[in-house]
Amino acid sequence: MKTKLVAAIGLFLFSQTLLASLLTVVPGDTEINGVTVNKSASLDVEGKAVQLASAGAGLRKKTIAQVKVYVGQLYVSNLDRFRDPNLTPLNSLDFNDMTVALQMTMVHKGTTDQLSEGFVDGFKSNKIDPTATPYSTLVSSVREAGPINVDDGTQTLTLVGRRLVDGSEEIVYENSETGKTMSVKGTKGFIKNVYSIWLGEPADNGLVNLKKAFVGGK
User: Fold this and answer.
1) Buried residues in 139-163 as b, exposed as e (16+ CB within 10 A)
2) Which contacts of 61-69 are long-range, i.e. CB under 8 A and separated by 24 or more positions?
3) Please, what are the domains in the chain?
4) I want to staple 75 with a disulfide (CB 3.0 to 4.6 A). Which of 101, 128, 148, 150 is the partner?
5) pLDDT at residue 63 in the model
6) pLDDT computed for residue 218 by the predictor
């Protein structure tokens, strides 16, 4: 009986871990396509709470047929550095004090192929080999985390870039619908290269407009 109880408790804790959200957000009073734009967010990095400021928000559309895909909200731990006129927003992510998060509230369904191919296309546009480690591992993790099967703006895909005490850079990817959270470690430059999908060379015009929403005229 005791063994069964311990097993049941373990299963419950495991489920709670799967369903826990990466980000804790503070809602704002504006909306984009019916999705609340948040004022700020916070997350845990190895037991330390990190506060994130909103860098911008916008609607991601696919160029073909102008399909609305998601409302993207970008958060950074050092907004002044992100907006430093002497840096590009992408290059600001290379500094050790920068933690970054992107939350995509889905307003269109996405298969595992569609979601993972978005990363592949973005890597190729920025001359990053998607078959090389750790980028291939991240693409596989996106597929493993599963699809988005609803389009009512209730489910999110969250991507966090954080630096660990061992000197590595980690990308954490969360699919709120499936409850799966995947993490991939890399060396210096990993976070910057992953976020080049949104802050670097856009793969299509839909990302051009989303980038403008994040970085303004820079």
Assistant:
1) bebbbebbbbeeeebebbbbbbbbb
2) 61/206, 61/209, 62/204, 62/206, 63/204, 63/205, 63/206, 67/108, 68/33, 68/107, 68/108, 69/106, 69/107, 69/108, 69/110, 69/206
3) 23-215 (3.50.70.10)
4) 101
5) 76
6) 53
Instruction: Record the pTM.
Output: 0.89
Helix H or strand E encompassing 6: helix 2-19
Q: Which residues contact 86 (CB under 8 A, 6 or more apart)?
A: none
- The token pair at 68 is 């609305």
What angle separates helix 112-125 from helix 190-199, to the nearest 10 degrees? Answer: 100
Calpha distance 33→70 (Å, rounded): 9
Give residue 64's pLDDT. 77
The dihedrals phi and psi of 131, each to the nearest 5 degrees, come to -90, -5
